[in-house]
Amino acid sequence: MKRMKKQITLVSILLIFMAGAAEAQYYGGGVYMQRGYRRPPPRQRYQQRRPKKPPFQPTVNLSVGYGFPNLDKNYLADFYEAYKGTSPTQTGPVTAALDYQFSRYNSIGVMGTYGKVSLPYYDISSNSGVPDFTGSLENWSIMFNMMSYFPSYQTVSPYIRTAIGINNWKQNYTYPDGSKAAVAENPTTLAYQVSIGTRFNLSPNAGFYIEAGYGKYIVNGGLTFRF
């Protein structure tokens, strides 16, 4: 009987020991490890929020400038018995453009130019160095004007100008006494200008611009106003 009690006691101690070992494995030495546990997701890096641009307000833009050189001199007529001098007298072209800017990057409007150029003509058979007659060319043009603006800073606005329209010419070839020396056909009626430039905003409503291109002028600069 006593022997049976000892066996029961030994079995009980063995069961208690095994249960304790299993519990230690389950709890992982005091740290609870539940089945199906997942590691917490990595901390997300916060991105800096860019300040939003203020809502765009459409504006009317006026620019007035002066171009150089006056390329209209290339349209003065050529004559068989006379050659052109190399020192033209020229004005402008004076330019003006009125545009409606309906978005941050585009505007449409009209552009006008005025220029005048005169050039001496010399007789091929004469070596006197005195002009035989003078040719002058006066031009007005009006063009449909399109502006495309690049993303810009607050004070600097780069752009591309594309303009196309019609020319109105007035030309005279006269002797020194004022009599008519020759008659020539009017040059092309097509007027155009393609330029790339930059507008510098001195204030929200005023600034100046400079641009370079080809058409009515090679270089042009002046003042801009915003309404």
Protein topology:
Blueprint: H1 2-27, E1 59-68, E2 82-84, E3 89-101, E4 106-123, E5 133-149, E6 156-174, E7 180-182, E8 190-203, E9 206-214, E10 219-226
Antiparallel strand pairs: 1-3, 1-10, 2-4, 3-4, 4-5, 5-6, 6-7, 6-8, 8-9, 9-10
**Helical content (DSSP H or I, runs of 4+):** 10-25%
Structural class: mainly beta
Strand order of the largest sheet: 1-3-4-5-6-8-9-10
One letter per element, helices H and strands E, the order comes to: HEEEEEEEEEE
Strand content: over 45%
Biggest sheet record: 8 strands, antiparallel, barrel
CATH class: Mainly Beta
CATH topology: Porin
Instruction: Estimate nothing, just give the exact number of structural domains.
Output: 1
Shape: elongated
What is the total tally of β strands?
A: 10
Named CATH architecture = Beta Barrel
Could you explain the architecture of this structure?
- With 227 residues, this protein is mainly β.
- The chain has a single domain (60-226), classed as Porin (Beta Barrel), CATH 2.40.160.20.
- The chain has one helix spanning 2-27; strands at residues 59-68, 82-84, 89-101, 106-123, 133-149, 156-174, 180-182, 190-203, 206-214, 219-226.
- It has an eight-stranded antiparallel beta barrel.
- A hairpin with a 4-residue loop joins strand 9 and strand 10 (219-226).
- The longest helix is centred in the first third of the chain and has 26 residues, at 2-27.
- The chain is elongated and about 100 Å long.
- It starts with a helix and ends with a strand.
- The model is unreliable at 21-34 (pLDDT under 50).
